[in-house]
Every structure is written in C-alpha cells, then in structure tokens.
Amino acid sequence: MKIAVLGAGAMGSVIGGALAKGENEVVLIDVAKEVIAAINSRGLTVREKDGHEETIKLLATDQPVAVGPVDLVVVFVKCYHTESAIRNAAPMIGPRTAVLSLQNGWGNGPMIGKIAGFDKLLLGVSYHSATVLGPGHVLHAGVGNTFIGELDGTSSDRLALIANAFSAAGIPVTPTTSVLKEIWSKLALNAVTLPTSASIRLSADHLLATEEMEQLMQALLREAVAVAQAQQIPLDFNERWQAIAGLLGKLAPGTKGSMLQDVERHRRTEIDVINGAIVEAGRRFSIPTPYNNAMLWLVKGLENSFEN
After folding, report:
1. pLDDT, tens digit (0-9, with 9 covering 90-100), for 21-64
2. In terms of residue numbers, what domain contains 259?
3. Does residue 199 sit in the same domain as residue 147?
4. Cα–Cα distance measured from residue 108 to residue 161, given in angstroms and rounded to the nearest whole number
5. Distance between CA 156 and CA 175 in Å, rounded?
6. Which among 14, 71, 173, 267 could bridge 262 via Cys, Cβ 3.0 to 4.6 Å?
7. How far apart are CA 282 and CA 272, in angstroms?
8. Interatomic CA distance for residues 34 and 244, integer angstroms
9. What would the pLDDT profile of 203-244 be if each residue is shown by its tens digit?
10. Under a CB-based contact definition with an 8 Å cutoff, are residues 46 and 54 in contact?
11. CA neighbor of 221 nearest in space, from 200, 207, 209, 236
C-alpha cells in the first residue's frame, strides 16, 4: 500500500517505520525541518525496550503535494493540529483514499470527517507506547494491540485490507465492529491516569500508592462510564477499573504518560479531547462531571502558566 503518516513524532514514527518494514510505500509528513532532515539523511532509528536499535530507510516531507494521492493516510498529530494537518494533506486524499485516525481522545474523527468526508474516515486506538529521543530517533517503549473500525460499525473490504497491511508489518491489530467502545475504553483509561499524573508531576507507576488517589481515579472513571453509557457505548465500571489497575501495577518505575511529558516540556496538552470530551458529553446529557471538570481546570491552569 502507499501510505502517508501525518506526524513523525513518537507514535507516528513507530507505526510508520513498521509499515515501511512491511514493504509498504510509506512517507512521513511533518512540519519540523530538523526531523525531516534527520530521517531523509540517515533514516528513522527505532530503539526497542531491550535496547536493540534499527534504522529504517523511508522518506519524510512537509510537502504533501509532492506525494500525491495515497491509499491510506494515518493520522497521529496532536489534537490541536488535526484541522490544519488534514487540510494540508488534501493533495494526498484521492477518491479512494482512506483516512485512519489513531489519535488520543474523542473529537478528532468528527473533525477529519467534516474536512475530508465521512465516507473516507476510519477510527481506531493503539496501545503501543513510544517516546521521542531526538530528531528521527524514537523509543518503542511498549507493545500493545491496535483496534480499527468503520465509524458505522460495518465490516468493509478496506478495513480488512488495512488490517492485513498492519498485521503483515508485525503490528498486532484487531478490526472491530465496535470501534466507539474501544475508543471510549481507552479514553476512560487516559482520563483517569493522564491528568492525575500530570497535575502533580507523579509518574504513572505511583498512582495507586495512596487510597486517596485511588478514590479520585475511580470518581473520574464513574463519570466517564456514565457519559459513555448515555451514548449507548457499553462501558462497565468494574471491567475498566480492573483493566486500569492491572495496567498501572505492571508499569516500570518512572513511567511517564504523554500528558506528564507535555507538562514537563511546557507544551500544550491534549486535555480538551480527553477529560474535556467527558465534560462536553456530560453537558449534552445533563450528567454532572465535577471530577473531570476539576482535572480540565487544573491542567488548563498549568498550560496557562507555561505562557507566562
């Protein structure tokens, strides 16, 4: 397949690199000149958890018009860059192009659909984790499953084709007819763990160290489950809490989520499409979300301090 990956950050590089190794024609699209130069001059270097490094040869560019129409666009940019990235990607989106969002949170898909067309949109989530070590150099910190699906829950030929391409590239993938459940399952995980960690600069492996923090995370989760169920998305509190607690209990010491990394680097976070998505859904369905509101306000306050 001819594939363009929007965003040559940590996750875009890990997935894009794997797809390139899987004999697809892959190009990474980014706006950072130093990242593009590094990848084009010496390749993309991916370090695995065990320290093994591999350099993958592929192209990177900030000029989608030079790429032309592709079979698949995979979107990994931060939520606040989604609109500009999709508009910029227009020369690569032809009549038969599929656009797959594997971004965090909820809200990116509808924006992509409005710009590129909902007929082109596929959604998904990935449980891989990665960190940028330098321009064109990333750490593949964790391996997990990736779920992808059509917005309307159908099983389509293009969904099967994309899933096969991911699988052939060594990326564990599950095509699903319940992609919204998978998205909100990860959204619940992120809403519980990311702002709690980021707001007090606490690595994720310490989140279960106190009863008080556990109670706060459970309160955040109850609100997420309530607004999901109001949308006929079947989340279960007990299942989600067991999954979240199990994940946190297995983390290596010092593990930092993406929001804490953003806060430490004084960068804008994705709080708007994580806890903000729960707050917005609560407003629509008249469901109180005071704990998610508090996390939204706390992290927004942190972001504001970066500008001063």
Report:
1. 998 999 999 999 999 999 999 999 999 988 999 999 999 999 99
2. 181-306
3. no
4. 23
5. 10
6. 267
7. 14
8. 37
9. 998 999 999 999 999 999 999 999 999 999 999 999 999 999
10. yes
11. 236
Of 135, 122, 130, whose CA–CA distance to 15 is shortest?
A: 130
Which CA distances in Å does 282 have to 26, 224, 274, 277, 294? 40, 9, 13, 9, 14
Q: Give the type of residue at 269.
A: T
- Per the structure block, which two tokens stand in for 69? 């129409």
DSSP E strands, 65-136: 70-75, 93-101, 121-126, 129-134
Give dist(CA 130, CA 46) in Å, integer. Answer: 10
Query: Of how many residues is the chain composed?
Result: 308
Summarize pLDDT for 82-139 with one digit per residue, the tens. Answer: 999 999 999 999 999 999 999 999 989 999 999 999 999 999 999 988 889 999 999 9
In the chain, count H helices and then E strands: 11, 12
Predicted TM-score of the model (pTM): 0.91
Helix (H/G/I), strand (E/B), else coil: 216:
helix
Q: Are 289 and 164 found together in one domain?
A: no
User: Which residue has 């909820």 as its token pair?
Assistant: 106
Same domain as 9, residue 132: yes
Number of domains in the chain: 2
Helices (H), 103-236: 108-116, 157-168, 179-199, 211-230
